[in-house]
Amino acid sequence: MAKHLRTYALFFHSLFIVPFAQAQVDQWDWAPRESLTSEQQSQLNQYCQGSYVSSWQATNATSTNLAADLIVRDKNGVIHLQGAAEVIQPQSTLSADSIEGIPNEYYRATGNVTLRSENQLIRSSNGYIANNDTAPTEFNQAKFLSHQSGARGEAALLSRRQDGVVFIEEGFFTTCEPNEESWKLYGSAIKLDTKSGFGTAKHVQIRIADLPVFYFPWLRFPLNNTRQTGFLFPSFGYSGTDGLSFSAPFYWNIAPNYDATITPQFIQEKGAGVDIEFRHLSPYGETIYEQSSFSDNDEGEQTLLKLTTAQSFNRYVSAGFLLEDNPTSDKYPEANSTSIGEKDHYQRSVYINVNSGNFLNKVTYLTYQTPDRAIDQPFEWLPRIDSSYRLATSLLDYRIDVQYTDFYDPAEDNFDGQRIALNQDVSLNFSNAWGSLTPGVLTQYRDYNLHDYTTDADHAASVGNLSGYLDSSLVLERRVDINKGVWRQTLEPRLNYLYVPYEDQDAIPDFDASHSTMTYSQAFSHKRFNGNDRIGDTEQVSFGLESRLYDENNNERWAFKAGQVFYLADRYVGISGDTDDNSAIDNAKRSDLLTSANYNGNRYSLTGNVNYNLDNDEVNLAQLVTTLEPVDDVKINLSYLYSINNIDPDDDAKQASIGSIFPLNQNWSMFTQYTYDFLREDASKEIAGFGYENCCIKVSLSYQHWLNDDNEFDRGVFLQFILRSLSTAGRASNAANIADSYWNQGKVGY
Fold first, then answer.
1. In 91-125, which positions are buried (b, 16+ CB within 10 angstroms) versus exposed (e)?
2. Which phi and psi angles does 35 have, rounded to 5°?
3. Which residues pair with 720 in a beta bridge?
4. Which residues are within 8 A (CB) of 389 and not within 5 positions of it... i.e. 6 or more apart?
5. What one-character DSSP code corresponds to residue 501?
6. Rounded distance, CA 351 to CA 600, Å?
7. Which of 161, 228, 343, 630 has the fewest beta carbons closer than 10 A?
8. Where is the signal peptide (predicted)?
9. Which helix (H) or strand (E) holds 288?
10. CA distance 5 to 98
11. Cα–Cα distances in Å, from 123 out to 89, 115, 116, 118?
């Protein structure tokens, strides 16, 4: 198998690398990597083999100097230069076997013609150089180079107007190195406008490894980062279930402060559609409108809409809104290149912020569209008002948060109402270099005016709670000699005491309460629940031990954490059901043992979390994510997630994944990914592919088999080209994968 891989690698390698004779390389002012200075080499991408170096310099002279073996002026005033002819001007130098012309008007050069100027080189068999506006400069059988951008090409006829616009007839241009011409843009007529930053071409061929892969009757393409109207490169793919898919985005640069992208979509077995993105930039912020529409052969019209804006009027006041809509009754476009995804609830909201230092205020009006009426609709805010103030000194930390929410039940089949939530947290901080002691008091108050739709009755409810806490920590430190360097290790014991007395909350509804995921950080939190509806009673002591290891440059290499919560009393308040101080909803005496480890190294990183139940002798959570680079350019990603015994069984997970990228040679790499779901007892993602990269092109070809959002398996073969300084062509899978994360997004190579 290894033998065949080497054979295939050599075969593909020959497709992309076209050797040139040394003489041809030299004519481009090309300097190989080994001849460059250390500073010049450091600026090169690892795949680039050299750089263009121009030795030409502008002169300080203000007049034109002529040089040749023989110089003659005829009776008409035409100067003839024969043998090693040169015309040296302040901003350019023209050389050829012979030159004739009238200074300040024109020069006609023949044989080995070379024209040099700042960051520009032109070579040709013969040329006409105009020094006035009467005619353009022209070169026959020309080669041209821009040292700064790396763009070069050849043309049967190359002409340049006085305004700098370049015309290429029957020629090509590329940004590839002269010894690796991986892609070229051919055209019968190419126009390069460096001032406006774009080019146009007729009868265009994009050739990769000298093989035509695209044809366009007319094409507009960028020469720099300037935004220009024109077609972007298309995306295409093939899937076993959908057949051929194709999209061709069109970018419309309407004005300097607004533009649009229109993307037609086609899927052979599904139908066709169009995506629209419109962007507007005001002096205060950005507004974006998106629409995805698709005409499905079976389901008919499918549409999603989204309108967002965020405006900052000054440093105190900002505002914005979000409008999402699905007008086609729970149908979702099969092809969608916008940021609108398939959702159960589409949000419509507007907000305004008024902030002044540590005094923060926000008003939010929030509603939803729920296309599927069988799904419970979330509460809407009509509106919500948040205000907070914080006073922090070296000794005192005081914070007050006030929130008013008018909740509305769109179905009007349960309950809704208004809620006022008031939270005050005041603490004292006694700390020095070796530890801290922080006693604090937390006041929580809730007031409700509620309406019950089942009984058509109104009632009020309120609850208040005063809780206390004491946080403390020590910081112990020692020096460690490792690898002939002085490292630093810390040991940080933590102790937290929290007391939240029980309060009867039978009359308190649940608008937005949720359980907190038990982690090491949550063990030292002062609240049991998220949201403002439930005040979780508890009396507990949390112990923690942290240790960190810093290298001689004070970079954190290792971090270990272990902690546990010990409950001194049963808990009687839950999110749902009645609260009864005679009926505990949780009588566990201690939490899981909560552990965490992190390592950041030169060759690999590690993040691990384990929650272990000492009472039942079982692991409830095990998570491991590691990235390894054992040698240069070899990347291995490993992950494992085991999360069982969650409150919602749908949140249970047990799966492992391995992804890798490793080089086959200087330019070729292979990438793989495999994800196995132990609960499904099946692989949920399988990916294998090859990637090629040099200084001007990246190519990936992959086979992918994955579980999609509809819980069904899909598969496809995906080919994608990234042409440096031109564009991206092809298509990648919609499923997140190592090819997208590390290869196509440039995390390997440039």
1. ebbbbbbbbbbeeeebbbbbeebbbbeeebbbbbe
2. -90, -5
3. 700, 730
4. 358, 359, 360, 399, 400
5. -
6. 40
7. 630
8. 1-23
9. strand 285-296
10. 54
11. 17, 7, 9, 15
Reply yes or no on whether the pLDDT at 11 is more than 80: no
In sequence order, which ranges of 641-701 are alpha helices (DSSP H)?
none
Three-class SS of residue 119?
coil
- What is the enclosing helix (H) or strand (E) of 145? strand 137-146
Q: How far apart are the first and last CA of the chain?
A: 30
HEC string of 296-347 equals: ECCCEEEEEEEEEEEEECCCCEEEEEEEEECCCCCCCCCCCCCCCCCCCCEE
Give the whole-angstrom CA distance, residue 558 versus residue 574: 38
Burial class of residue 724 in the structure, from the number of CB atoms within 10 Å of its CB (0-12 exposed, 13-18 middle, 19+ buried): buried
Residues facing residue 440 across a β-bridge = 427, 469
Q: pLDDT tens, 70-116?
A: 999 998 889 999 999 999 988 889 999 999 999 888 999 999 999 99
Q: Tell me what pLDDT residue 446 has.
A: 96
- For the chain, domains (ranges, CATH) are 1-53 (no CATH), 58-229 (2.60.450.10), 469-550+560-616 (no CATH), 632-749 (no CATH)
Q: What integer best gives the mean pLDDT of the chain?
A: 86
**Least confident interval from 4-18, 29-43, 89-103, 721-735:** 4-18
Structure token digits, residue 652: 């249970």
Determine the residue type at 582: N
- Measure the CA dihedral 699/702/704/710, to 10°: 30
Over residues 599-636, the pLDDT tens digits come to 999 889 999 999 999 999 999 999 999 999 898 888 89
pTM for the structure as a whole: 0.74
List strand residue ranges (DSSP E) for 429-537, in order.
Answer: 430-432, 435-452, 457-474, 476-482, 485-500, 514-515, 529-530
Residue 621 corresponds to which tokens in the numbers above? 């959570």
- Cα(37)–Cα(53) distance, rounded to whole angstroms? 11
**Which residues on adjacent β-strands are paired with residue 402?**
387, 422
Q: Compute the distance between CA of residue 649 and CA of residue 629 in angstroms, rounded to an integer.
A: 36
CA distance 192 to 146: 12
- Apex 408 CA angle, 405 and 409, nearest 5: 140
Q: Spell out the residues 6+ positions from residue 69 whose beta carbon is closer than 8 angstroms to its own.
A: 82, 83, 84
| Residues 413-422 pLDDT 10s | 999 999 999 9
Answer for the pair 182, 189: CB distance below 8 angstroms, yes or no. no
What's the CA gap between 661 and 632, in Å, rounded? 11
List of residues 6+ apart from 679 with CB closer than 8 A: 652, 653, 654, 655
- CA 682 remoteness from chain centre: 30
Which residue in the block uniquely carries the two structure tokens 């080189």?
121
Q: What's the rounded Cα separation, in Å, for the pair 635 and 551?
A: 24
Q: Measured between alpha carbons, how far is 153 from 145 in angstroms, rounded to an integer?
A: 7
Backbone angles phi, psi at 548, to 5 degrees: -130, 145
Dist. CA 521–CA 542, nearest whole Å: 11
Residue pair 174/181 in contact (Cβ under 8 Å)? The answer is yes
| Cβ pair 271, 294 in contact under 8 A | yes
d(CA 234, CA 246): 7
Q: Are strands 50-52 and 457-474 parallel, antiparallel or unpaired?
A: unpaired
Q: Are 189 and 169 in contact (CB under 8 A)?
A: yes
Name the nearest CA neighbour of 387 among 358, 350, 366, 348: 358
Give mean pLDDT, residues 323-352: 90
What is the C-alpha separation between 26 and 20, in angstroms, rounded?
A: 10
- As a whole number of angstroms, the distance between CA 214 and CA 165 comes to 26
Query: What DSSP character marks residue 733?
Result: -
Cα separation, 729 vs 719, in Å, equals 9
For residue 335, which of 243, 250, 273 has the smallest C-alpha distance? Answer: 273
Q: What is the rounded distance in angstroms from the CA atom of residue 428 to the CA atom of residue 436?
A: 10
Query: Percentage of the chain surpassing pLDDT 70?
Result: 90
